[in-house]
């Protein structure tokens, strides 16, 4: 095994292995990010994986988005759809989507394009290996094999398409496929393949935190075998590159925390597996609806000539320490949950992973591809990951548009400097899970940090000992404690989902992506309007369901307002739940100051506030909650 380390001022990603040059057994292509920009480089390899030559630059630019999945000649990708297709010689596999439905299309058969798989589900990451009589294809999807419903965890599927266009699958059931497995290591996605001389298959893929190999031969499937040591939670590459080098041997290359690991392995053997006709079209599949729909009632935001919109604007993919490709959060939000907006917020520098200018450009282009103004909005964002308390903690950065640079924690390691830099770009930052990693109180700026994320898969950080629980116990960092010390900000909630059931045992729900939702009262379903609503604190947090909530101060001022008054301010709140509302309360620094107990899904409450802050809190019989952004009252002298 050989290791090509990232090194000082150098970061390596996207390994591809291709046929060798004159003096090597294989050539390794990677993208390298250094002080001069990014470069597509190639290096020759020896039989044990050692580098046999100095890296040679094929292309240099300020930013390179990625390499194509072409078995013979990987090149720099020029489109955000590059992750949705793969080629081997005359054969090509690609993903085609129409609304909630995804299809795997194979080209190269004698009768033209062939549909190899089709369902209302997420399908992604195709791979292909051509043979004398057809092509093996692999891809991952989230459709359960037992009931045909989309789920959280993805698994690889394997198909063979003959030259005549017949679609076959292994006769043997895949071993160790477990879409309900809990813990930190879940799923099997982002495939690559190697076909042995006798027709046996080696399938490679990525779990949530390790790479695996699983062989298929004439006797059926073997066990999944982990590649390398278990180094725990981290940010790794997305795929294993693999290439046969003859004499029953092969090389693999994968990006681990330290760099590109190149390993010599035995090629698969044991004979060609038995195949049977595959089910292609999954008619019974359906879009996922794991959470309640929004109430069928007039929107209280209409009084402001606005609409209440819901979205999850903090989650991760395999571009940092989560699961899945960059398209998946957008597809899941729009077609799975019916949300109005979403953001993918991968860590820009964390646990061995850095997002350089090319990858950042790619992630922005994917967000733009899914943005559909008026129907569905995508935000441009990333997570800045500082040191835990007493360090600056973690913050998500939201930018107003594409084309702006990342403000990296490697360059700007302190919270106040980050907030200032992001504000200068027209964006803002949002601290989160503050009772676990810290609130970074000294860095707070009401303009640069207009809202805080108060609830997620990690729990609720309004108060210590909250009924929804919380990871960590920094009691003086909780949201209400910081409000009592005079800081002002609104509330949002997000999942911080990484694609793991129960968020590996931390979350209170099986589906981590329904543990927090941001609601905005926006003028339009567009990126700008949603960001404006958040900046104005015209927003609120829910525990993952679309509860409708509105707050009015003195009959004309919305939630998030600052009010200067010489008399007590009248506060009214209205809520429409997704189930029976147990209580609707107004909470101030003194605790609950008014409560209305509901008997159905609607409730109203009103009270007066002398000074300070107050927010509305909804509690449903099913335990779901919502919290408005506070009203802030200053008394005239």
Automatic annotation (TrEMBL):
Q: Where is the composition biased (Basic and acidic residues)?
A: 281-297
Coiled coil located at which positions? Answer: none
Where is the chain membrane-spanning?
Answer: none
Q: InterPro entries, per this entry?
A: DUF3604, Pol/histidinol_Pase-like
Query: What Pfam families does its record include?
Result: DUF3604
Residues annotated as region Disordered? 68-88, 281-302
Which SUPFAM superfamilies does the UniProt record give? PHP domain-like (SSF89550)
Q: What is the name listed in the Swiss-Prot or TrEMBL entry for this protein? A: DUF3604 domain-containing protein
């Amino acid at each position: 095994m050989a290791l090509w380390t990232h090194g000082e001022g150098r970061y390596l990603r996207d390994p591809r292995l291709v046929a060798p040059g004159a003096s090597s057994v294989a050539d390794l292509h990677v993208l390298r990010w250094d002080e001069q920009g990014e470069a597509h480089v190639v290096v020759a390899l020896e039989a044990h994986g050692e580098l046999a030559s100095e890296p040679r630059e094929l292309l240099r630019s300020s930013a390179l988005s990625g390499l194509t999945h072409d078995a013979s000649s990987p090149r720099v990708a020029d489109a955000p759809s590059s992750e949705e297709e793969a080629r081997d010689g005359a054969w090509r596999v690609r993903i085609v989507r129409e609304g909630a439905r995804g299809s795997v299309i194979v080209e190269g058969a004698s009768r033209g394009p062939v549909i190899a798989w089709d369902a209302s589900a997420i399908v992604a990451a195709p791979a292909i290996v051509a043979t004398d009589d057809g092509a093996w294809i692999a891809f991952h999807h989230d459709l359960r094999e037992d009931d045909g419903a989309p789920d959280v965890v993805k698994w690889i599927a394997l198909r063979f398409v003959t030259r005549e266009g017949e679609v076959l699958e292994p006769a043997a059931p895949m071993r160790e496929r477990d879409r309900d497995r809990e813990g930190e290591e879940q799923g099997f996605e982002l495939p690559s393949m190697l076909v042995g001389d006798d027709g046996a298959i080696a399938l490679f893929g990525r779990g949530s935190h390790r790479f695996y190999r699983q062989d298929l031969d004439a006797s059926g499937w073997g066990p999944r075998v982990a590649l390398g040591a278990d180094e725990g939670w981290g940010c790794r590459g997305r795929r294993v590159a693999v290439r046969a080098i003859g004499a029953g041997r092969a090389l693999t290359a994968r990006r681990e925390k330290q760099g590109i690991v190149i390993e010599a392995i035995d090629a698969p053997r044991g004979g060609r597996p038995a195949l049977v006709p595959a089910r292609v079209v999954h008619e019974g599949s359906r879009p996922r609806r794991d959470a309640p729909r929004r109430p069928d009632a007039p929107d209280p935001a209409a009084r402001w000539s606005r609409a209440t919109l819901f979205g999850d604007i903090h989650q991760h993919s395999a571009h940092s320490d989560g699961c899945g490709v960059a398209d998946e959060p957008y597809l899941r939000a729009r077609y799975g949950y019916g949300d109005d907006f979403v953001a993918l917020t991968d860590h820009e520098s964390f646990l061995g992973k850095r997002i350089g200018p090319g990858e950042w450009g790619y992630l922005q282009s994917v967000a733009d591809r899914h943005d559909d103004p008026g129907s569905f909005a995508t935000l441009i964002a990333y997570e800045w990951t500082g040191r835990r308390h007493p360090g600056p903690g973690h913050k998500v950065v939201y930018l107003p548009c594409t084309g702006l640079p990342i403000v990296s924690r490697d360059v700007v390691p302190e919270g106040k400097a980050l907030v200032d830099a992001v504000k200068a770009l027209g964006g803002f930052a949002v601290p989160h899970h503050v009772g676990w990693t810290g609130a970074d109180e000294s860095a707070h700026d009401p303009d640069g940090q207009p809202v805080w994320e108060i609830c997620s898969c990690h729990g609720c950080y309004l108060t210590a000992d909250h009924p929804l629980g919380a990871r960590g116990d920094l009691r003086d960092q909780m949201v209400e404690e910081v409000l009592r010390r005079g800081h002002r900000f609104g509330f949002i909630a997000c999942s911080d989902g990484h694609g793991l059931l129960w968020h590996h045992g931390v979350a209170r729900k099986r589906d981590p992506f329904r543990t927090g939702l941001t609601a905005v009262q926006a003028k339009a379903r567009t990126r700008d309007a949603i960001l404006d609503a958040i900046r104005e604190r015209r927003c609120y947090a829910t525990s993952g369901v679309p509860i409708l909530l509105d707050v009015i101060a003195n009959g004309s001022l919305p939630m998030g307002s600052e009010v200067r008054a010489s008399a007590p301010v009248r506060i009214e709140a209205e809520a429409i739940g997704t189930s029976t509302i147990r209580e609707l309360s107004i909470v101030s620094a003194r605790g609950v100051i008014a409560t209305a107990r509901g008997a159905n899904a609607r409730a109203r409450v009103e009270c007066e506030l002398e000074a300070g802050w107050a927010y509305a809190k909804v509690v449903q019989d099913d335990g779901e909650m919502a919290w408005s952004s506070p009203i802030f009252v200053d008394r005239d002298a």
